[in-house]
Amino acid sequence: MLTKSDPDEIQSFLSDASHMRDGHADRVVFPENGEEIAQTLRAASEQKTPVTVSGAGTGTVGGRIPFAGIVVATDKLNCIKSVVHKADGGSAVAEAGVMLSDLQRFVESEDLFYPPDPTERSCFLGGTVATNASGARTFKYGPTRNYVEHLKIALATGDVIDLRRGELYAAASGHIKLPLPSGGAIETRLPTYQLPQTRKHASGYYVAPEMDVLDLFIGSEGTLGVIVEVEVALLPKPQGLLSGVVFFSDEQEVLAFVREAREMSLRSRQKYAGDAGRLATLMEKALAVTDRGQAIQRSATRELGGDDHSLLDARAIEYFDSESLRFLRAKYETIPETAVGAIFFEQETTASTEDLLMTEWLTLLERHQALTDASWFADSEQDQAKLREFRHALPVLMNEWFARHNQRKVSTDMSVPDEAFAEMLLFYQDTLRTSDLRYTIFGHIGDNHVHVNILPRDDDEAKKAREIYLLFLKRAAAVGGTLSAEHGIGKLKRDYLPLFYSEEHLRQMAALKRAFDPAGILGRGNIFSEELIA
Predict the structure, then answer these.
(1) Nearest to residue 152, comparing CAs of 143, 163, 141, 142?
(2) Cα angle at 364 between 359 and 365, to 5 degrees?
(3) By CB neighbour count within 10 A (0-12 exposed, 13-18 middle, 19+ buried), where does 382 fall?
(4) What is the 3-state secondary structure (H, E, C) of 337-383?
(5) Mean per-residue pLDDT for 281-293?
(6) What confidence tens digit (pLDDT) does each residue in 148-205 have?
(7) Is residue 342 scored above 70 in pLDDT?
């Protein structure tokens, strides 16, 4: 097994996208299979040597930054082992170090589709499982957890286990018994807290009544074991895609548009679950005519359940506030001067629905007074790539700002329940507008999850930004929200967990970790303070 200890050679493994400083380790090892990882963990447990798992370094909460011991780099676990076609899609087996973008390109070449889409797709597959990664398409498809069918995991005991969904469950009492290949079993109990009623959640261990034990490892941030190999479920590749960046001159209409688009999307999914074949047949009729198309569409509407029927079903609804557009105008001069907000959306289409869906979206946009003539729409891959570039341009522009001012951003990742979002967004806006700080608010508004980025220009503003961040955290906790919707806790956010969990619940999580990792070597400093797991 390749091992590196020269400071110059291992420097790139001591940082990630969080920009935490002063990471250090004795050495970095590059295992090529689960057994080599298990041997490393067994020896580290015996010697009580900290072990940090390293993925691609795209994480933003310092999870892969070590402060002692060994780094286990998953770079050599980079094989896509198989893709299998099934009637309803398929499945793929890949090692933890496979880049997500490579996996998605590969399965798409097989006319299949893997939905999870974190913003940085150069991340490793194992890292997406360890953080239960999500992204824009989570609005329709949910997070990584929904697609994980099987995991191969190396444990701190030196065992390599195989967990397949549907084979091992927690008891009604919360008791878990996990048999080990070496003999014996790990026995522990789930924490007694309930997860928040948010659409996204990546804060601490997942728990649910009589849950599948597989789900315990998804989102555990490298604190319970090292993911070696993953089997994921795949869907049929969508036939077509309509996307748009739509501008608004009235802030209230932006929010009203989002509410209606979300409600229509959720109704469409509920109404036509299991009825895709029948719907396609009716829409083929609409495609087969020209001047009679509206009459056929009305007939299809009646047959499918009433005049309120809609095909509209966004897979992504993303928000940009006025301050975000202010940043983006430096690169995109055609953003309308009157625009105070924008929405990026994506909608899957077929040959039989694309015209009808374009009409539906335009009707909805006009109802909410969008600047449709100045907005951008795409139905070709080339134009869609330009819209995705726009969506990802804001973080790049903000990073340039930080470099100029020698500061670090203060960024939220909270999500709140449906009924609390409108007031939470207003609280963000009112607080920041009176602060004299630069900021942007953007992100996954379809899931009640926006990123507030506060942009200090000097140390005094940085102090003020952190004070405001704490106010936001306390408000999110008070309305039943989650500390992290998608980035995880890592080392950067662990000190804020007591705002969202009681001391007893934190101790229950720590006890669960100790059951899997008695020596406390794995992901030391992630999620918990070292004192809590001592």
Answers:
(1) 163
(2) 100
(3) exposed
(4) CCCCEEEEEEEEECCCCHHHHHHHHHHHHHHCCECHHHCEEECCHHH
(5) 40
(6) 999 999 999 999 999 999 999 999 999 999 999 999 999 999 999 999 999 999 999 9
(7) yes
Confidence of residue 414 (pLDDT cuts 50, 70, 90): very high
Measured CA to CA, the distance from residue 73 to residue 350 in angstroms comes to 42
What are the DSSP calls for 181-231, one per residue? TTSSEEEEE-------S-S---SS----TT-BTHHHHTT-TTSS-EEEEEE
Q: Compute the average pLDDT of residues 91-110.
A: 98
Q: What percent of the chain has pLDDT over 70?
A: 93
CA distance 364 to 253: 11
d(CA 489, CA 472) in angstroms, rounded, equals 16
- Chain mean position to CA 174: 27
Distance CA 46, CA 41 (A): 9
| Cα gap 475→48, rounded to integer Å | 39
Kindly give, in sequence order, each residue whose CB lies less than 8 Å from that of residue 165, ignoring residues fewer than 6 positions away: 148, 149, 150, 212, 214
pLDDT for the residue 309: 65
Phi, psi at 13, each rounded to 5°: -95, 5
Q: Check pLDDT > 70 for residue 294.
A: no
Q: And the tokens for 392?
A: 């990802």
Q: What pLDDT was estimated at residue 399?
A: 80
Question: So what's the pLDDT on residue 274?
Answer: 52
Q: The dihedral of CA 171, 172, 174, 175: what is its sign?
A: negative
Q: Which residues pair with 72 in a beta bridge?
A: 29, 53
N- to C-terminal Cα separation, the chain: 30
Which DSSP symbol is given to 386? Answer: H
Q: What angle do CA 81, 84, 87 make, to 5 degrees?
A: 165
Give yes or no for residue 276 having a pLDDT over 70. no
**What pLDDT does 19 receive?**
84
- Distances from the Cα of 479 to the Cαs of 51, 76, 420, in angstroms? 36, 44, 7
Joined tokens for residue 317: 């609804």
DSSP secondary structure letters along 10-57: HGGGS--TT-----B-SEEEE-SSHHHHHHHHHHHHHHT--EEEE-SS
| pLDDT over 80 (residue 348) | yes
Q: Which two tokens stand for residue 479?
A: 């309305």
CA 303, 305, 307, 309 dihedral sign is: negative
Cβ neighbours, 10 Å, residue 408: 15
